[in-house]
């Protein structure tokens, strides 16, 4: 009987060890870290905003993590926020994101708790005014004081790898469903603006606005959000003209230009 009990204990311990090993095997690293031999990510292009239907995965109306429930937004349109950005790297590299894609720390991607997946967001480091456009395809960071988790490449471009975190301004880039945009155009009520650049230097943007107005014969406006100013050309009543001018501006030295429809 003693031998049988001893054998049962051994089997139980082995089973628990196997379960523990399985639970820990999702990530090979216990703590996150930068890659040991990273390629040059300084030339990695921004994510290219385009219309994408929201994925089936990662977009539950509500979800709970660590005892806290989060609500996913119906749309990213009009979203802006300021807060603390962090970044995640080698521990999660190659694993699945919340919407079922594979996380690539060398891409321009990010994790957010409530934006629908995927979404495109312009991220500005408030301290140095550096900007990137990322594609949000994951959930997190699940810390009270964190707003967004950036990929290694995005963090590198914003010059925040050493500090680990940075104060940032987020501005969602919403691309409307082409079918919906076409219907809105038929109604003739839409006004189009071209976002050119964002900066904390209003005087610089005012001078640039005058030059662009003379060059392209289009009015401009400067929108303020806290200490950040956004220069936009418009309004432009016809979508084809606005689209064509956006493409021209990208070729003429303003590669981050994009179209806004109101």
Automatic annotation (TrEMBL):
Q: Which domain of life is it from?
A: Bacteria
Protein name (Swiss-Prot/TrEMBL): Endolytic peptidoglycan transglycosylase RlpA
Extract the SUPFAM superfamilies matched here. Answer: Barwin-like endoglucanases, Sporulation related repeat
Signal peptide location in the record?
1-23
List, alphabetically, the InterPro entries matched. Answer: RlpA (IPR034718), RlpA-like_DPBB (IPR009009), RlpA-like_sf (IPR036908), RplA (IPR012997), SPOR-like_dom (IPR007730), SPOR-like_sf (IPR036680)
Where the record annotates domain SPOR, the positions are 186-262
Q: Which PANTHER family match?
A: ENDOLYTIC PEPTIDOGLYCAN TRANSGLYCOSYLASE RLPA (PTHR34183:SF1)
Keyword Membrane assigned to the entry: answer is yes
- Known function: Lytic transglycosylase with a strong preference for naked glycan strands that lack stem peptides.
Keyword DNA repair: yes or no? no
**What phylogenetic lineage does the species belong to?**
Bacteria, Pseudomonadati, Pseudomonadota, Gammaproteobacteria, Alteromonadales
The record lists the membrane-crossing segments as none
The source organism is: Shewanella youngdeokensis
As recorded in UniProt, its EC number(s) are 4.2.2.-
